[in-house]
Amino acid sequence: MNEEIFKKTLEQLDTTMEPPIKEPNRQYYFIKKLIDLIDKKSKEKGRPLTYCVVTFGCQMNAKDSEKLAGILKTVGYKESKSEKADFVIYNTCTVRENANTKVYGRLGYLGNLKSKDPGMMIAVCGCMMQEKHVVEKINTSYRFVDIMFGTHNIYMLAELLYMRLTNPSKKPLTVIYDEADKIVEDLPSEFKYSFKAGVNIMYGCNNFCSYCIVPYVRGRERSRKACDIIREVEELASKGIVEIMLLGQNVNSYGNDLDDKITFAKLLREVSKVEGIRRIRFMTPHPKDLSDELIEEIAVNDKVCKHVHLPLQSGSSDILQKMNRRYTKEAYLELVRKIKERIPNVSITTDIIVGFPGETEEDFNETIDVVKKAGYTSAYTFQYSVRNGTPAAQMPNHISEDVISERFNRLLDTIHTSTDEVIKKLTGLTLPVLCEEYNDEKATITGRLDNSLLVHFEGGRELLGQIINVRLDEQKGFYFLGHAEL
Ligand code: SAH
Ligand code: SF4
Ligand code: F3S
What is the pLDDT of residue 313? Predict the structure, then answer.
């Protein structure tokens, strides 16, 4: 968002008139009204009002939370690190059942806080809100919630907050669209870090993997225009951001829905031309359509991290078919081979689900086999969780929890052995790292390698945000101890 244009537009908006229909001006109008209202409330309280946004789930949600925080800061709230705040937002995830359970547990705790401070406001948003049974449950069992809004309504926070503050009611104000009607650009956003940031390149997913709820709660694929993405990256670079992560559920299909045809590989090239940006990451490509053009771009583009997150999900071609992943074990391994051949020292990471309905011991052993052959740097593993409304929920032969958990442990062992071998090979090398965190007590820095692994080394706070060479002296499981070679 261009701050000057934003400020000018706010100045020109007449808040005594009806709100504009068009976005983002409609939200600007409510932002302007909120600035006065929050100022008044802060004066009444004798201190600034505080907010706390708690994020569950993936990078998409993390990015949405930054947008929510950006609006709250703009209207005058100060951030609170704890949930003892004037306005708490839970940005929820529903990819597995335990994500939902966590949110309900925490909501109970928030209810207690609110009973001691009735002026507190509570909003729940994000992926869980797109499910009718969740909304019903909150309406009946968590009546202290003030606002519920969905994944397609994130941009409306200013409007919803203003409505609630000026029209208190005993029922939650609920605004949940089933589908996104538009992409709203140019709203304020907050940044968790001053040197790295995520950038949405597309929203939603069209893949409908049979176990996955994401397409139902995030809607169909919508790509942002390349010019809007580049403009955002340029603005980030001008603020000192050096690393960006391009975000989408399936980045390979970026651009398919745009009038100006553009591939993800071309977008990477364009983004890498932005001065000041030194590292580019992306999440997530789908193995079924990862193009040679993209492999080539990763190989030749110095700014693109040599890291490919390539979700396997299962190593069994039968299970993959039932999962609607549209690749086979052999095609996946061939892709891994091709990537490694073209990009030496590339790091490949993955996601795996254990216990998909109908998974036999042989199927599971195929997964173990791929783990041994692929040479992952790290792997995220999940126990299959039934999501109502997805095709897999209706499939026969659901696997018992005992079997899932036994296989899960076996998989973890195999992963540890194989990632250990891959990571060990890096010991002794000197590699560039982005200095991400400063540890006060030990006066050490935590830096991130191109492949996403962490290394701890002695260094001062002034290194934060810099990319420097670090020698990886010693491997400690999933991370390294090292020293800076300045
Ligand atoms: N779009 C990304 C990530 C989606 S969600 C992709 O396609 O890889 C992140 C991970 O959660 C998935 O990769 C999958 O491994 C896991 N996951 C999704 N649905 C699940 C379910 N019902 N049970 C267990 N794990 C699941
Ligand atoms: Fe879910 Fe598959 Fe889409 Fe990933 S690609 S979000 S796993 S449906
Ligand atoms: Fe969860 Fe929604 Fe992400 S369901 S994994 S937060 S897209």
Answer: 98
Tokens standing for 162? Answer: 């203003």
| Ranges of the chain with pLDDT below 50 | none
> What is the number of the ligand 2 atom nearest to the C-alpha of 325?
2
pLDDT in tens, 193-222: 999 999 999 999 999 999 999 999 999 999
State how far the Cα of 354 lies from the Cα of 360, in Å rounded to an integer.
11
Report how many helices (DSSP H) and strands (DSSP E) the chain contains, helices first: 14, 19
CB 482 within 8 A of CB 458: no
Going by the DSSP 8-state scheme, the letter that residue 220 receives in this structure is S
Distance of alpha carbon 411 from its chain centroid, rounded?
25
Span 258-268, pLDDT tens digits: 998 899 999 99
User: And the tokens for 141?
Assistant: 């069992």
Closest ligand 1 atom, residue 286 Cα: 7
Which of the 8 DSSP states describes residue 81? S
Q: What pLDDT does 241 receive?
A: 96
The structure's pTM equals 0.95
Q: Which of 216, 217, 309, 382 to mutate to test the pocket of ligand 3 (most atoms within 8 A of CB)?
A: 217
Nearest residue CA, atom 2 of ligand 2? Answer: 209
Backbone angles phi, psi at 75, to 5 degrees: -85, 0
Q: Is the CB of 214 under 6 A from ligand 1?
A: yes
